[in-house]
Write a structure and sequence with these properties.
Layout lengths: L2 E5 L2 E4 L4 E8 L6 E8 L6 E7 L4 E3 L7 E6 L4 E6 L8 E9 L13 E2 L3 E6 L1
Parallel strand pairs: 2-11
Antiparallel strand pairs: 1-3, 3-8, 4-5, 4-9, 5-6, 7-8, 9-10, 9-11
Amino acid sequence: QIQLVESGGGSVQTGASLRLSCAVSGFLNSSFAVAWFRQAPGKGREGVACIDSQGEVNYAASVKGRFTISYDNAENTLHLQMNSLKPEDTAMYYCAARLGWIAKWDASYEYDYWGQGTQVTVSS
């Protein structure tokens, strides 16, 4: 069983930075994908970034160049470095994991395990 616990959210002003972390417990086998999603009030869950076991990364167009996803294998922790934050980045941020090959990284149905979420609020 895999468990995911997010941390690092908070309230910041436009242009600030935050670093989200997601502690992964349980066994990630040799093939996996871990990702960050977000959900703003009244909106659907949106894929933000993904990294797989081969090190391949993908980003949503809205965050490319501002956010950086990374996975620390030694610490079994997923990170999301968020720079130049904007009010439209305000959302609950979730980490997600899938064992095995993934077809569509930004589709929430691809992921089997989810964290409880951490709130990010960006004020103008």
